[in-house]
Every structure is written in structure tokens, then in C-alpha cells.
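fyi for ur records
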Amino acid sequence: MQLVINGHIPFIEMNCLAAEEKNRVYSIVEKQFSFLFTLLEKIPDGKSLYLSLSGLTIQMLADADFQTGWQDWLTSQKKASDSFVKHETGIIARLKAESIRGKIILLASSLSGFPLTAIQSAAAVSMQITQSVKLFQDYFGTVPIGFWLPANAFLPGIDKVLHEKGFRYTFIDQKGLQLSDPITDSDATIYSPHGMIILPAKKIQCLNELQQIEHAPDNMAAVIGLDQLQDSAEGAFFPQTFFSLSNETIADNIKRKQEQLPTAHLSFSYSGMFEGESLFLDRDIARLKAASDMEGVIESAFYQHSQYPSASGERLIAAMLRMWAYYLAGISETAQAMWAKRFADYSEVFEQQWKLQARMFYGGESAACPPDMNKGIRKDKRRLKIFMLSWEFPPNIVGGLSRHVHGLAQAMAENGHEIHVITTQAEGLIEYQLAEGIHIHGVIPPAGQGEEFLPWIGGLNIAMAAKIRTLCESGSLPDLIHAHDWLVAAAAITSKELFNIPLISTIHATEHGRNNGIHTKLQQSIHLLEEEMISSSDKIVVCSEFMKQELQDIFTAPPEKISIIPNGVNVDSVMAGFTEKAGGKASSGKRTTVFSWGRLVPEKGYDTLIQAACELKKQGKEISFIVAGRGPLLDYYRNMADKSGLGDEFTFIGFVNDEIRNAMLQDSDIAVFPSIYEPFGIVALEAMASGKPTIVSETGGLKAIVRHGYSGLLAKPGCSLDLAEKISYIAENPKAAAEMASSGKEVAQRLFSWERVSTETERIFQELLLHNHIKRGENDAYSISL
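which gave:
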């Protein structure tokens, strides 16, 4: 086991404090670090502890005015700490000496000590890390290879930035590892998809707890705050407290094991998430919007600076970056207000100087704001105009695609974005409507396209492209186009090329995956459209690590072009119409009811479910099956069930609306989804969100949603005997079923909310737009130093 001390101290500008307040700060700092240095003297030889420091903590402790005031305060104390009197050095110098001695192994952290998951763009995350690295170089003469994520808050993509900055390992909450794809143990060490080594971390409240977890593996980190050391009992400083600490450093441990480490995709997590704790305090939440707006102003300033660079502009941007970082780190409303005011002042001066610089280039008073200079730049970076293309959208519901686009569009509209959905015009609806904050534009394929699917899709794309052209020519261009699956590929690619609009495509499934290969001319045509769409897109979004690997294998898509964002679920929609019932079975009578819904196509595996029902009937189990949905195999499956002698015990009821679906779900006991191929499985997520014990096939994205035996059960794809066994287990073990149902509901609500999905999607959008701005400016904007 390793001991990590989180040494972040909220940033305070001492010059702004009265003498009494300064003395209070010195007293707190003295107390915290004296406990740390006492600990270092007690720790046995051959063992080390890890100390993480944020950039602003280093800056504050190393500040000349702070050190002068600190030494004066120490001298004035009648009983100054032996830890400081004995060594007669500043805190940074003492930490550097202990690091050289090997008692401390330093970990870098972000500049402000604020969770990086709350920062909107990769470039801004990069800036937080870069400036912290620079402070380590300046004051310690070296840069650690380990990085401490504030609050252990992790989001896919942060690992990429860390790896690019030269870091080798970081930590996440050990329970976050249980959400990995593929699933790993909570005490495992893994590689992230971008090459970062991820180690498990566990919070402790005092050092005495080390003795309670003495059998933890060498890679496990016990984490305690610097301010919590003083809460440890005096006996905690005895040598036996540290017997459980490893004699091997993390660097040596991973060097020895790196060849054996598995690679897994990780989801969003933070310390305390699984205990129901919030990542942010109320005061943090209140300032997130202002901090995000500052980030947007900085982004615009970088782009403007790249067009008309100047030394004064560079200094002003550096000052704005400092104020933004201080604002994130501020501990009081007064301090935050001060940093916000200074940020606004620097921003205003920058804007004035930039306009003057632009006049010098263009000449004349009328050139105060040159044409097209601000085109595409938004001061409020949260507000985007997005065209979403989808062949289905409520009330046109064919499969999960419609629900996905609706959920994402609604969530992003609620976040203040201008969302336009271009889709097939639903029967009985007008061409344009504004619903739930979403601009919905319905189109109808030109006449004469015929009823065959591929020609009809071709006509739909012609109509979509025409609608996009009309919208672009009659108003402002969108920031980007977001296309969903190959069915809208032609319209998306044409519009991208015609108006030079960035294109992001979400690939929900592939023709190759649906059919286990390409076997017909129609499949080949669709496959080629998918290939062109992937090639033409600036960014690709998929719902699981499984789908990312599929695109890499089938289309040789570059991994750096693909981002993973899981599907979401609207819990309120799924639970609509549910009523409170007494405990026990949901269905009436002795029979257990199994419910499933989805498109009736080969890859959904309903033939396996029919065969499992036959097996259960042979065993004398009283179980009924109901399947809702439509598709080309509806009649085939009905005949198969009848010929198997299942009769009324297995019913295909065809398409049902959400209200009826919810009612049937409530009246069922088990939800089963026996897919052979399933990139994600939004219907399984909906079942989990409703609180039903859920069984899914161990395939594709489904196995990443369900943790076997905890949030549901996994069955072997295409194996009716195994599926029958899993159904029987749920039916005959109500206590275990209830526990899995409860855990599944919690997982669905916490990790797959549309709010979270929309936030991750927005992050991808903003990163792409920022990348394009910087690329057009041919300037590495974020290389400016503080």
C-alpha cells in the first residue's frame, strides 16, 4: 500500500489580508506542515510517502513576501514548531530536501487544485497542467511522473492530455475501476486507452486507518488530506502504523508489472461518487458558470491574438489566465469577486488593444472590427448552434436511435444551445415546429424515389441537404453538424463541403457488425457509405469501447479521431405511469413475467429467447414471456413461438408507445435483452432505470453497462441454455434479484443521465471548434506562459 497526502492549500493572496488574517494563515500552514514533517521523521527507513501539490500551492509557499512574513511570524512565536526552528529553511526548501532524501515522492496536480472535469476544453485543461509543471521545474528542478487528479475526478480524455504532458501514472477512486470496460477488479492497475497507468485510491480520515487495511496490495493508495494529519491520534505516528506501506515505489512497481497490465476504458468518476457525495460544494457550483464564461473569453482572445499577435496582447492573456486560475482556487466570495473584477479589467484592455492592432493592419476608423474577424467566435462558449441530422425522431420511432437523438437534443437545448433537428417529417405534423426548446425541421423525400429503402434514403438525403442549404442561406451558419449513422451521411458530407462546417458523426452500429460481415450488394453499399462518413467526419463519437474497436478493425479509423460517450436514459420518462405497489412479484398469480422490447431483427437474438422459453417449459417453470416491438422478423418469430408449443406463454405484441411500454414494464418481473450484436443497448439501460432485475447478453456495449451479479446478470450470446439458467435464477432468488435491481437503478441514474451525456458531448464539440480556431490561426495559442 502507498500513502498519498493531498497537500493542496486554497490560494490566498497575502497582500490583500490584514495583519491578523495573515497570522491566522501562517498558524494554519505551520500546524499542517509541522505534522507532515513529524510524520517524515517517524516513517521507517526504506519507506516513502507521496505528496501532491497544486501549482498555486507551490506559488504561494514560494512567494518572497509570504516567506518573509512567514519567517517573521515564526520568530515572534514563543513556542515555534521544532520542525521549522531546527531546520531554519522555508517550506519549499524543506520539501525539496526531503524529496532528494527519498522520504517524499512528489506528485504534480492542476494549477488551481480545482477538478479538471469541470473545465470545458482540452486546451484549458492542458494550460492548468502546463503551468503547474512549470512551477515544479522552477522550484524543485524536476517534474514528477505521477499526477494527482483533484478529488480523483476523472473523465475520458484527461488521460490523453496527461500522457501528452509526459506523466506516466495517476489515480482514481477504486470504485471507479468497477465501471471500466472491460470490467476490472477495484484494486487493479490498468492502462487507459491513451497509455496512462491508472492506480486505485481509497480515502482515509486519519492515519490510524492504515492499520485496518494492512493487507491492501502494493499498488493501492490510501489518501489523506494535509489538513487531516492533525486529526490522527498521537499513537498513529508509531512505526507500526506504517508496516503496511510498501517498500517498493509506484514507479518500480509499474516498471516490474507494466507488460502484464490490461487496457480498459474508464468512465466519469470521482472520490465519494459511490457514497452519494457531491463533487462540488454549493459555493463551487455557483461559480462554475462564471468560470466557464471566463474560459470562453480566453478562448476568443487566443484566436484574436493569433490573427494580430503582439507582446502586450500576450502579457494580457497571461494575466487573464492567472485571474481565471485564481478565481477557480478562491476560497471566499470576496476573493472570487476580486479575481473576477481583475479578469474583466484585463479582458477589456485586451479588447481595446486588439481593435487598435486591427486598425493598424486594416487602416481607417471603419476597420475597428475587421470583417469576418469575429466570425465563429463566441464569447459565451456554452452557446452553440448545432444542426442534428437523424432519419428518425419522435414521434417517428423505429429503434433506439430516435430516443438517443431526442434525449441528447433536449438536454443540450436545456443547457442553452440552439439545436436544430433535421429529420423525416412525421405524418400529420407541420414542416417546422419548436418543441421542448428544439427546432424540428421535417423533410419529405422527393416524389418518384420508390418504396425501396436505399432509393428512399437517397431521396431523404436530397431533401435534408436542401433544407440545410435554405437554413444556412437565410440565417447564420451553425457551429457544427452532428450526423447520426449512415442514413444521413450524404446530406451531412455535402453540407460540410458546401459551407465548410465542421462535421461530427455518431456511429450507433455498423452494417458489418449487424450481419457479422458483408454478404450482399445492399450491405456493401451501406458499408461504403459508412466508410465515407467516417473518413469525412472531423470527429467520430461511439457509445462504447467495443464500438471504437470495431471502427478501428473494420474501417482502420484512427483511434485519436474517436471519442466514447455512452448513451443516456431519461429516468422520468421510463418511470412515467409507475404506481406504488406492495413488495413481492410485480405480475399477478404464480407465473413470473419476462418482458423485452426492441426491433425484431436478427441481431437482437429473440430466437435465443424463444429457445430459452422452451427449455424453461421443459423444466416445468411457470414463466410467461412478452416481447414488444416491430421489425421484419415479427411474423417469423410469432410462427417460431407457435411451432415450439409455447402458445400463450410467449407473446409478440408488436409496437407499443412509451406509456404502454412503461405499464407493461411495471407489471413484469424480469427484463431480458438477448442480443447477438449490440453496440450499447439503451433499452437495457431503461429497464435498469425502472428498477427491474435485468439480464443482457455478454456482448458489445451491454457487458459494459451491467456488472454481473451486482447490477444485473450477463448471459452467453446465442446460448439458450445459459439464458434459461439466468432467468430461472432471478425467478427463484427474489432477494438477490431485488438487490441487483436496486444497484442497476442506481448505476443507470447516476452514470447514464442525459445531463452527463450532454456535458461530455459538449466537451467534444468545444474541443473540435477550438482546434479548428487554432489551426486556422496557425498558432499554438496555449503555449503562452504565465
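The chain has four domains: 2-275, 282-368, 385-564, 577-752. thats all i got for now
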